[in-house]
Specification:
The chain has helices spanning about 1-25, 40-45, 75-100, 115-150, 155-200, 205-215; strands at about 30-35, 45-50, 55-60, 65, 150-155. It is an alpha+beta fold and about 220 residues long.
């Protein structure tokens, strides 16, 4: 029962984390920057929000975005963030599918529990890879933006990416740990049954041998 609760908790955390990674990937409010200095930008009421896909100018009367289409001219941190976030978003789909099919309430024919445990471990590993992609991207992007221009504050998308990364990391750890413990416990039970069966089969052999010797005498 406790193992099923851990598996369900890991599944829910993984789904929420994957959703956070997708939201962070599809939005551009990662960091807020200022070109002219903090005091000047506050007087002009003009800030710039930057993400992996576009740079947006934010003011009281204007919200204009310029999409970053020159792929070869982009800095390395933007290209790496794009690649990792897309990879994490894509890997989350088969991971969630495998985790859903390995739930205790879902049965695929006469499938043994060991197959479900293996599928849960594989899905948990994929979720951990998603978390690693989100972690590298959400840490490297603000550092690169700060080195390129003046970084003023973090944006909504970056916070969403951090939350999604933490949820994915926790969910993946829960899933892999509980499934590995279940697999080892099932393996020990099978061995115990095998040895008990072997011992039970050898026990009656002694009386029959003694009986044969007494009959011969």
């Amino acid at each position: 029962m406790a193992n099923s609760c851990l598996q369900l908790t890991g599944f829910l955390l993984s789904c929420l984390g994957w959703l956070g990674i997708i939201i962070a990937t599809s939005t551009n409010d990662w960091v807020t920057m200022c070109k002219y200095g903090l005091s000047t930008c506050k007087k002009m009421d003009e800030l710039e929000a930057k993400g992996p896909w576009a740079e947006c100018v934010i003011s009281t009367a204007l919200y204009h975005c310029v999409f970053l289409t020159q792929i070869l001219d982009l800095p390395a941190y933007i290209q790496t963030t794009r690649a990792l976030m897309i990879t994490g978003s894509i890997l989350g789909l088969p991971a969630v599918g495998m985790l859903l099919m390995s739930m205790p309430c879902i049965s695929l024919g006469n499938e043994p529990q060991s197959s479900k445990n293996k599928r849960t471990i594989l899905g948990g590993v994929l979720i951990l890879i998603v978390a690693m992609c989100g972690m590298v991207s959400t840490v490297w992007f603000p550092i690169g933006a700060h080195q390129e221009q003046g970084l003023m504050s973090f944006g909504f998308s970056l916070y969403t990416g951090w939350v999604g990364t933490i949820f994915s990391l926790l969910g993946g750890c829960f899933l892999t740990c509980c499934s590995s413990e279940s697999s080892s416990r099932a393996y020990q039970d099978n061995n115990r049954f095998y040895y008990s069966k072997q011992g039970g089969g050898n026990a009656p052999a002694a009386p029959s041998t003694n009986h044969a010797k007494s009959a011969h005498v």
